[in-house]
Fold:
Amino acid sequence: MKNFKYLLSLLICFFVLSNDPISAKVVFHGGYAFETFKGQKVAAAYVSIFNQSDNDVVIEKITSNISDVAEIHDTVLEGEIMRMKKVESLNIPARSEFYFQPGSTHIMLMGLNQELKDGKTFNLNFVFKNQEKVNVKIMVLNNKLRENLLDRK
Structure:
């Protein structure tokens, strides 16, 4: 009976430890967007994601409290034209990182319901394949920072 209790305790520990929520193993860092002008209906957001788990994670959807639609878009070259293409889901391999960044994969916010102002924050909710949600705070930066970045290229 003692061995059974020991085995049962081990199995329970294994089950609890192996089913950590995504939020315990996936870290979101440095989320930002640039300020918008009054009436602007579209913006982009960027964030770094670090998957510290031993499993791939898949982002199926993003929602936002400041826009009607939030989608993952990739920038692709078609012939001689750069185009944005919607990404249906994003796989982040185990023990890797992914960077949403200008000129590459980014989060498009469409149907903005408010102006994004320097120093303010808003939330993005990342929904994973297992339906777990992670809320991420995004900081709005001054457009002069964007101009400085573009000047360096």
In short: The chain has a mean pLDDT of 85. The chain has three helices and ten strands. Helices lie at 2-18, 22-25, 143-152.
